[in-house]
Design brief:
Oligomer: single chain
Shape: elongated
Distance between the termini: 47 Å
Strand content: 35-45%
Low-confidence stretches: none
Order of helices and strands: EEEEEEEEEEEEEEEEEEEEEHH
Number of strands: 21
Helix content: under 10%
Length: 339
């Protein structure tokens, strides 16, 4: 190769959407090549647009790369490259990061305490033995022996039999049973994501794989519900699930989530569990670089500003900071459009 690259600082888990995050690296010349330092650069791709920034020499083979503005909360990929004096190019492997200031945890329930969750609600039709219960689970061929949390032992499961008891003695039978969350206020979060771990088993009994567990969300306190996922994977292991709230409903002050385990039609062995429920939120910081007028929206007003500065070598519309207002800035603005 013309050159090999190695990071000397920790790869950033996140980069500031406004730009300015740095990463240090070394660039070692390959045998038989002479590098052209002027071609050393980092290429950064955000929402489909790629920006090149020069590597700043720190002495010897050490260099520093500075990230331009990127669109939050979107993934970012970056790679390094350099050419030799004959024009032969070396490109490093692509790395990934996230455009964000930080990630906060707004809700964190591992169910060692109830936290306002309710197992079994009015209208449920399943027999009482298989209703949702918060407990240290007793393992069977269908139910987990342990909760998912690294600490503690309690989770929500559908029924909880006795040690050595029959696998079907406390499973879901005769209808549905609901695990209902308390009300969550997510109205102040910019982009909340629901995360949880789910156990589900329905591949045993008289009608295997005939049922499923709808996971639903409401932004009006439970008056209406929208399906997040009709979960039916018989993994017999704790399985991570993640849902970006805005993909389904607008975040509000009256959010609820419910898990509806059910045994409908011909009876089968149905067991479900939920543990480690979280709501996380990506923090994009106070200023979105694509919000040119600072009103909290990226919309037609910002687009008009950008078009008015088209071709300029400075100004607020130079979103990526490369000293030219051009198609790259337009792509970044459209990728951040929220108005």
């Amino acid at each position: 190769p013309v050159a090999t690259f190695a990071l000397t600082s920790t790869a950033p888990a996140m980069v500031n959407p406004a730009g300015g995050t740095t990463v240090d690296l070394t660039m070692s010349v390959g045998a038989g090549h002479t590098l052209n330092p002027a071609t050393a650069k980092m290429k950064v791709t955000s929402v489909g647009s790629t920006v090149s920034t020069p590597l700043a020499p720190l002495g010897g083979i050490a260099y520093r790369a500075t990230f331009p503005a990127t669109v939050c909360p979107e993934p970012v990929t970056y790679t390094f490259e350099v050419a030799d004096t004959l024009g032969e190019l070396s490109t490093d492997v692509a790395r990934s990061t996230l455009s964000a200031v930080g990630v906060e945890t707004a809700v964190d329930h591992n169910f060692e305490v109830a936290n306002g969750w309710t197992g079994g609600v009015a209208g449920d039709t399943a027999t009482a033995a298989g209703a949702w219960v918060r407990a240290d689970p007793v393992g069977t061929t269908a139910q987990p022996e342990d909760d998912h949390s690294m600490t503690g032992a309690v989770c929500w499961v559908t029924g909880n039999g006795t040690v050595g008891g029959a696998a079907g003695s406390a499973d879901v039978d005769g209808g549905s049973t609901t695990l209902l969350s308390p009300n969550f206020d997510l109205s102040s979060l910019s982009d909340p994501t629901i995360e949880c771990w789910v156990w589900y088993s329905n591949n045993l009994g008289g009608a295997p794989n005939a049922d499923s567990m709808p996971i639903e969300i409401s932004n009006n306190g439970g008056s209406t519900w929208v399906l997040l996922e009709d979960f039916a994977a018989n993994n017999s292991v704790w399985t991570a699930r993640s849902y970006l709230v805005s993909d389904f409903v607008a975040p509000s002050a009256s959010m609820r989530v419910r898990f509806v385990a059910r045994d409908l039609g011909t009876g089968s062995l149905v067991e479900a569990g939920v543990d480690d429920f979280k709501v996380t939120n990506i923090d994009c910081g106070a200023t979105n670089p694509a919000d040119l007028n600072g009103d909290g929206l990226v919309n037609a007003t910002d687009l008009a500003t950008l078009l008015g500065q088209w071709g300029a070598t400075s100004g607020v519309a130079d979103i990526n900071g490369d000293s030219i207002v051009d198609a790259i800035d337009l792509a970044l603005l459209m990728g951040a459009w929220n108005g």
